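Inverse folding, one chain.
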C-alpha cells in the first residue's frame, strides 16, 4: 500500500523537518500553503526549496490547495469545524480541483510524498482534509509526521 505523509512545521526547524522526511524516505514535499512567506527561519518558499534540495528532497508549491484567509483565521481561533466547511467550499473551486488532480497523480506515483503546512496538529489543519481525499481516491495510508 502506498503511504502519503503529512507534516506541520510549527515549533520546528528546517533541519528537524528535513531529517524527519529523510528518515521515512520522502522524495517530494508538496507545500499546500496559500502563503509561502513564513516568520519561522527556513520555511519561506525559496529557503525551504533550497534546504530540502540539500537533503535530496524535491519541492512543489500547490498554492491553490492552500487555505483561504477566512479558513486560516478560523484555524487560528480554534474554529476547526468552520475551517473544514470553508476549506471544503474552497476545494470545489476549479483551481483547487485542478491542483487536487495533480496531487492525486503525484500520490499515485512511486515517489514518496509529504504534504506540508504550518499547523503542528494535523487534526487542526486543512492538510488532514487533503489526506482524507487522497485516501478516498487512492486507498493510500496516511501517516502524520511530527518533526
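Residues assigned per position:
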Amino acid at each position: 500500500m502506498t503511504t502519503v505523509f503529512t507534516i506541520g512545521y510549527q515549533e520546528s526547524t528546517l533541519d528537524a523537518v528535513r531529517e524527519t522526511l529523510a528518515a521515512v524516505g520522502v522524495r517530494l514535499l508538496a507545500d499546500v500553503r496559500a502563503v509561502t512567506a513564513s516568520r519561522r527561519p527556513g520555511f519561506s518558499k525559496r529557503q525551504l526549496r533550497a534546504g530540502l534540495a540539500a537533503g535530496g528532497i524535491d519541492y512543489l508549491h500547490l498554492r491553490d490547495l492552500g487555505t483561504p484567509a477566512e479558513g486560516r483565521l478560523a484555524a487560528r481561533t480554534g474554529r476547526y469545524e468552520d475551517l473544514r466547511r470553508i476549506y471544503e467550499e474552497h476545494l470545489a473551486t476549479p483551481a483547487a480541483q485542478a491542483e487536487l488532480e495533480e496531487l492525486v497523480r503525484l500520490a499515485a506515483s512511486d515517489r514518496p510524498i509529504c504534504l506540508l503546512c504550518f499547523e503542528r496538529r494535523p487534526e487542526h489543519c486543512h492538510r488532514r482534509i487533503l489526506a482524507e481525499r487522497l485516501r478516498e481516491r487512492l486507498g493510500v495510508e496516511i501517516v502524520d509526521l511530527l518533526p
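The chain has a mean pLDDT of 95. The radius of gyration is 14 Å.
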